[in-house]
Request: fold
Amino acid sequence: MVDIDASQMTTRDINLRLKSNSFSNNGITVKNSQGRHNLGVGLSSNTEIKFEGNVGYFCGGLSSQCQIVIQGNAGWAVGDNLMSGSIAVEGNAGASAGSTMRGGSLFVRGNSGARTGISMKGGHLVVGGDSGFMTGFMMQKGRIVVCGNVGEAVGDSMYEGEIFVGGTIGSLGSDAIVQDASEDELIEVWEMLAKEGIAERPKFKKIVSAKKLYHFDSLERLEKNVI
Amino acid sequence: MCGVCGVLYKTKNGEKSAPVGVALTEMLATMAHRGEDSTGITVANHSEKTDFIVRLWAEDVHGAKQHIGEAAAVHNITPVIDRMNGNFIRVLVKVNQDQDIADQVKTLSTFFNQVEGVTLHSIGNVSEVIKDTGTAEDLDLRHSIRAMSGSHGIGHVRLATESRVDITHSHPFWAYPFADVTVVHNGQLTNYHKLRRKYEAGGHKFLTGNDSELIAVYLADKLSRGLSLHDSLSGALGDLDGTFTFLVATSDSIGYAKDRWAAKPLVIREDKHVVAIASEEVALDTLGLGESQRIEPQENEVMTWSI
Reply:
């Protein structure tokens, strides 16, 4: 394990250092991350990265393959557009955690803020605590699991994918409905939790799209004129 | 983008010597990346309540000093120039204990707005607004913010989006003409012009063209109608349109309101002695609070704390 001290480096230098380390198989620990934004962005190899302390916005964004652990809280949009690999936040995450993520797994042990998993396009997002309003807004694929409660308008305008909620639902968003989760699905979700060290097995409610807002085959007026 | 922060030390009757200036400067300095156009703070200190603190800005301070003296003689007001610092003038005016405070502030506001060559930034009985262009470190260097103590305060770093970059358009905005009510705001108000026309028609005066000033005027209007700070903030959630997270400081309280979209960030840490609020967690980390409750406000929320 290599240590670097972020307090003496620019964000660009930290990320360059993390990238260069990507080519070795050693893990790397970033000390004094001090809530800095854009840490660990755009990394692309199988490396373990640990941030000691809080991180700011977009931590781990656009990355693939690496395993990132944040020993603190994360600001907005942690794991933004994550491609693959894993990110684990040991504290809480701000708004828009896992926004537009396409693959891999994002785990928030505490609570996450508004618009968790907004426009998610794949992968798994697990929240150990509660998650804020408009969780899963316009999600297109993938799975969100919230062990605690979700806020208002969950799953608003979602296209595909599924949201599992262990606690209470503030309200359902437009076109979101609650479906019964099958025994197999529940077992799958519980296994995901077990991997993150969560032993509880909540009886999850499953939220999916009712697909009443689907109008993909209807043309706009001007388009009809063209045809 | 903009960054906001606030701190309140919870002690009976208002702690007189809590390091509010240091706390605000540290928090704002770590949020410099959220805006470097200007920085400003409000600090409330209850130890001296015998004077109104008037903060003025003038292009020509010596000319302004003369104008203040001339106007004072006519209007039977006795302002004492306490300090001049660059283009800033700090004036003290004795509080008349037999007269209503609100009436006195109205008279003083009218007076200073008429004095040639000065721009009125704030009038407070226990609090003071200091704002300037540049960063928190610049502000401290020019105005010795770290040396300021008191019970509570709010601060702001600005990245201008809605109006010009100058000192008058910097935050905090004072709720003219109500003493000790000031606001810092991160966001944009989309019904600013509509509400401004409404309040102007109702006799309220705006000192700048900044949308955030509307929040100060809005709250002042509610408070003057006898609403509590909490209820005034709750009203703002429905009446103000746009994206906003703003903090307000009064003579004995601070509070926040966060819009229905939860579009602007805010994190709070609170323990038995202190509550600290900021746009980013990194700012709260500077205070070394240790064991404390952490709250991240969600949509449509308000909260207030008192000394």
Summary: Chain B touches chain A at residues 30, 33, 261-262, 265, 267, 280-283, 285, 294, 296, 298-299 (CB under 8 Å). The longest helix of chain B spans residues 61-75.
